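REVIEWER CHECKLIST
Item 1: Sequence provided? yes
Item 2: Single chain? yes
Item 3: Sequence as submitted:
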Amino acid sequence: MQSLCVSKKSAHWRNESIDAKIRRNGFTIMELMMVIIILSIALLIVGVNLDSLIPSERMRADAKAIGSLMQFARAEAACKGVNYGIVYDLKNNAYWLLVPRSVNGEYADYNSADELENSEPEVREKLFYKKLEYPVEFLDVQIGEQHAIKNKVVKIEITPLGLASGHIVHLRDKEEKTEFSIELNTLTAAVSYYDHYKEFKEVVDYEE
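Item 4: Structure as written out by the authors:
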């Protein structure tokens, strides 16, 4: 009877040890979500590169890349609890992501538009820099119902709560004489694509 009890206790200890090891070596739900997001972006990049080989699909491929950057910025801001920035250099046909630097696992807290706009350059890292290749170019960026901005550097704020400056990025293919629109919706967080020039329309959410 004593050996049976010892055997049961030993088995119970082994099970607890295995469970602890699984918990120690396992992934959290947030980590799994981030892995899925990263894999999705990697697959999207592969698809974008294949699309860009077809002349008629070059602008669509660039639009998908910009849209994926918008979605990635939103996911990262929500996960890390800090603001991210997307920068469009319209004059030089380039864009990139601004990522807060981490010190001992802590991120600089830039949670207002003024701080994001006026922060020191070294505070945030420039990641995923990409330049549009001829004949695709930026036409303009429209933020909210403001007038379209051309030939300037435009910064868009992405907050941890999933709120962002609703805006539309307009692209143009100089050879095909076609235009394309990428819209980030502030309420739904959805990125929409249009094969024409789309004006921004503010979505109002209210209760009667």
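Item 5: Key structural point noted by reviewer: The CA atoms of residues 187 and 205 lie 8 Å apart.
Item 6: Recommendation: ____
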